[in-house]
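FIELD: query
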Amino acid sequence: MPNVTDVRTTLDGGMRTTEVGRVLADAVSSARHRAVEPALLERFGPQLIEKALVHRVPGPLLHTFRHHGVAGEGALHARAVDDAIARMTALLDVEWMAEVFAGADIDWLAFKGPVLTTIAGCDRWERPTTDLDVLVRGRDLERAIDLLVDAGGFHLDQNWELMLERVIGEVHLIMPMGTSLDLHWNLLVNESMRTMSTPDHAAIFDTARTVDLDGVEVPTFGPAETLVYSCVHACISGGHRLVWLKDVEQLVLADQPDWDDVVDVARSWGAAIQVGAIVGRTQRHLGLDVPDGVIERLVPNRALRLALELLDRRRPVADAELDESILRLATRSLGPTTWVTVERFGRRAIAFARRRLLHGEPMSATELFVERPGDGDRRRYFDAVVAASS
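FIELD: result
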């Protein structure tokens, strides 16, 4: 009998996927999970669990297994316990950070991680949480670091030469309970990413709200900004994991952002194509209900819309390779206009081929943690941050 993960089946609408990939996408979908046949969950149980762990959606799959009374959930339950512990640890560190910043006249906004889990209403299943992301104004970055370090945090960055050269948009700390903190002054970490879209950080602070995280009031992005950033983050990351589509689905269902606001924010960031691509991908793979005309407003070029749809149907997320697949390469190429997207895709394809031939590797974040001489670069880095964010 052939391996089911190698069997290609053509579904309605031309979606080309493996049977396991189709079942997994349906099983983690809020719109479709109740209709999944229990016999398929039992038949493909081990493969589904393996794929769910890779795609970081063990919680939704566990929820579906339990809904249908399917056994064999041991690995999913173990991961859910680990994710719950990580979330509780992160919440303790969030409370600590809130106390550190209280009265310090530093504006800050937490996003992703436990904040996203709370906003998206994922309490019935744990979303994997590996770190915490916080945005501060560029002028406050150095003082925020000093406050956190003085209170017991540990600052990891040492390679100030590289930090300055790349004008890195975040610094990295470890909080007292062990949670990794990415402290942003810019939502886009590298300068190359900032040619893809330009988030309006001042407007993000202006439209901020607070959410309750287990009794701690935490400031975060407004509903439209949360959805737009989640789509941008998915694109930057490659858009090849189901967890990012699940985030978008849950934000739409639970946070209910106004679609006119979403379109306006996406356009103001120069991220309309990125948002349209990920919202459309979520619609196709998870059955997200998107009002008529929204995708067309985000991606007005009909040829590009058709290309994105063809990409999704020929390279469905649930079966995507997790290294440099064509899906990941194309998604990372999406820019503010159709022509920028085409040009970027060409350059990335050439760079990808060159890396494969020369066995080169992209920069690792750990390079920032290797100490380099010259404290003057540290001072110049913070000056560059203030200049870039003013």
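FIELD: remark
The first strand starts at residue 8 and ends at 10.
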